[in-house]
Amino acid sequence: MSTETKPQETIPKQAQENLAFMDNVTMKFNKVVALKDVSFNVGYNEVVGLLGDNGAGKSTLIKVLNGFHRPTKGQIYLDGQPVNFRSPRDSRDAGIETAYQDLALVDLMTITRNFFLGRELQRRFGPIRVLDIPRMNRIAAQSMSEVGLRNIREMYETVSFLSGGERQAIAIGRATFFGAKLLILDEPTAAISVAETEWVLRLVGEAKQKGLAVIMITHNAYEVFDVADRFVVLQQGQNYADIKREDTNPKELIEIIAGRK
């Protein structure tokens, strides 16, 4: 990751006031324009619902924010300073944790190994380093318990046995433990039960209480309405609406997503 310290007067006001700010971002794939001059921000300790129909540009926008794609044009700011993420690892090191719709978990690896993926703890035996599995198991079990995942027999179970909601809990617990500033959840309630949806939404509220900002990508306005502070709607890769919760309702949001308002 590269950062550039700029004089405060040259940094946009929105970048100074928010945790993350994307300024006039354009993303092209050959001749296809996936995003066009999109501006997007999330404040400190704010939950933002990023809404839009399929193909609106939601996932592309997030993949630009977390370094998966490098924008064709535009600038990203984090904590009031410009950043240029070269990879998702750069954004993760800067405090942005992303859980994609497929959760990017390794089914044949244990819960603990997925929890620490890329951040494994080690201990030394002379010149040899080995994974500190007992310590990682204890930490993962404690973190999972704190987000309500208490019915797992052992941390060495593989994640292939977990439900969608339990997998989301791993992502949220991981972000909280590793001190993320911003948690991005891509369609977190897709293909999970009503009970698990309520659980995941409660975890989002608890993450906010612990000081995290959260972006929830979804097309379901009803599910995200009670937990989000603000809603940003994209259409055809462009800004379409930016509304505070107190100024709208789920029915109106659906009309906006559909382009009827």
Descriptive report:
The chain has helices at residues 13-17, 58-65, 88-93, 111-115, 133-146, 164-177, 194-209, 221-225, 250-257; strands at residues 2-3, 20-29, 32-42, 47-51, 73-78, 81-84, 96-99, 122-125, 128-131, 182-186, 213-218, 230-235, 238-244. The protein is α/β, with parallel strands linked by helices. It has a single domain (2-108, 179-257), classed as Rossmann fold. The strands form three sheets. It has a six-stranded mixed beta sheet with strand order 7-10-11-4-12-13, with helices on both faces. A five-stranded antiparallel beta sheet has the order 1-6-5-2-3. The N and C termini lie far apart (40 Å).
List keywords for this structure.
single chain; 261 residues; alpha/beta; Rossmann fold; five-stranded antiparallel β-sheet; 9 helices
